[in-house]
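Backbone-to-sequence.
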């Protein structure tokens, strides 16, 4: 049938479209100081001209990780929590 696309054909197209759209939106919303290697405008042009390769490149190389809220306090656990139910010794 010519009018009906098979699910095995549609699924990769949907995944590629989601990757491209997600990478493009993520690039637009990322602050300029977190973008790596080239300016943000060049990343956008790359994402628009080569959507699959550009989307993968953006996901793996495009931006610095988000900074941590409190970098000096790296330990976790109940001894370091504060709140109304923490018993003071």
């Amino acid at each position: 049938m010519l009018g009906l696309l098979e699910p095995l054909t549609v699924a990769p197209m949907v995944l590629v479209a989601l990757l491209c759209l997600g990478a493009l939106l993520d690039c637009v919303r990322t602050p300029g100081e977190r973008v790596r290697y080239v300016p943000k405008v060049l990343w956008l042009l790359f994402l628009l001209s080569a959507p699959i390769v550009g989307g993968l490149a953006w996901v793996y190389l495009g931006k610095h990780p988000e900074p941590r809220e409190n970098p000096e306090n790296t330990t976790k656990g109940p001894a370091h929590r504060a709140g109304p139910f923490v018993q003071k010794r």
